[in-house]
Amino acid sequence: MTQPHEPDTGHAAPNAGRRLLLASILASYASSFIPWSLARAQTAAPAQANAPEAFLSVSRVITGRAALDPTQANRLYAGLVATVPSFAGQLDALAAFIAANPSAAPQLQAALDAANAPFAKLPRQIATAWYVGVVGAGPVARCVTYETSLMNVVVADRLKPPSYAYGPYGAWSRNPLTAA
């Protein structure tokens, strides 16, 4: 009796050793990304440090607002520390100046300019951060907030900051219709 003939497909049977080798190479490649992302997350954590009370008290004097969002304060502080050299030291000196000269608080910038203080530019940087939502200048400038920046919050009862263009794409490029 003859054996039934199995068709020859031309493919060899799967090799378990090759598949194991391929799986281990892919697993080691994929796992090479894990330590990098964990290290990145660990280094990013200190940048989100809480703003010290000195930053909040100085910010209250500069902005003229008694209540400031603590989450936004943390983000602005972290951004200012990252973009302004020696920010923490200048902030401490500014807080000490305000504490020593409480009558100068309403005219803080004029008092700092008159005293020729080395940290005289700091109130402008803090005010810009709170009102515009941008820290730093030039190539190192970073937008920290937009909708919750004080320039939008103080007018929120009447105006809403647009987050997109009104009308169809390109509507802002056409000339308005003139009355006939």
Automatic annotation (TrEMBL):
This is Membrane bound FAD containing D-sorbitol dehydrogenase. It holds the Pfam family FAD-SLDH. InterPro entries: FAD-SLDH_ssu. It comes from the Bacteria.
